[in-house]
Amino acid sequence: MVSRYVTSSDGAQIYTEAYGDPSKPALILVAGYSLHSIVFEKQLELQKDLFLVLYDSRGHVCKEYKLKKPVFGGWSLGGTIVSDICHHLGADVLGGVILIAAVPFLDLFPKVASPQLLENVPRVLEKSDVKTSREGSRIFRQALFYDVEKVPFATSLAWMGSILLMPPETGELVIYRKQDGTKFLEAGKAGLKVMYMYGKQDMHHPNGMVVVEELRPHFKDIKVVAIDNAGHSVFYERPEETNKALLEFVKECHA
């Protein structure tokens, strides 16, 4: 494993990790809202076949790791970064896109999120009442899983700690910033490959197929992978099915 801090154009220090052989096809994975790249612990086995790069929320890892046409994989709100990439760098830097229970731009978030999630977000972002904020974060974490009782206590602590580390001001910017998904949609008509993966028991995004319906007019051959007995953290709860689908799609993009 190689870890590096990458400096963005605005001076922000971004933590990144890379696993595997750089000569193999590259897959970038980005964690969702308020979460850290530790959530992808069960995807590390993919380093046998891929060069796996992880970073937190945003990053400039393509240049730092000399990646050529990597496949971008974003989980949840981490998927919105693909629109930033297409808008600022152009879609031709990507070999493909994987949306893991994700939205590719923020306008879609209210359409796919559950009423409970939308109601709970203000609690997570509460600045003056610690009790409300902590309770909101606890509810947020629990709903990440289909069967939260099966999640080891150490994992629960790590994920909860990641959520609590996010300042409310940062959380507001992530959700309420202005974003333009036009270039991403245009990339579909130019042939960019997209796979949408979701857990059938997702409590955060129960309307996830809305994303597919919105994208189909632009991405004619969008691939859909639905995994049973899995919630929003489908990659954690069903790693074998997830990793198989990830590997197959990356190989398709590099065929």
TrEMBL record:
<feature type="domain" description="AB hydrolase-1">
    <location>
        <begin position="66"/>
        <end position="244"/>
    </location>
</feature>
<protein>
    <recommendedName>
        <fullName>AB hydrolase-1 domain-containing protein</fullName>
    </recommendedName>
</protein>
<dbReference type="GO" id="GO:0016020">
    <property type="term" value="C:membrane"/>
</dbReference>
<dbReference type="InterPro" id="IPR000073">
    <property type="entry name" value="AB_hydrolase_1"/>
</dbReference>
<dbReference type="InterPro" id="IPR050266">
    <property type="entry name" value="AB_hydrolase_sf"/>
</dbReference>
<dbReference type="Pfam" id="PF12697">
    <property type="entry name" value="Abhydrolase_6"/>
</dbReference>
<dbReference type="InterPro" id="IPR029058">
    <property type="entry name" value="AB_hydrolase_fold"/>
</dbReference>
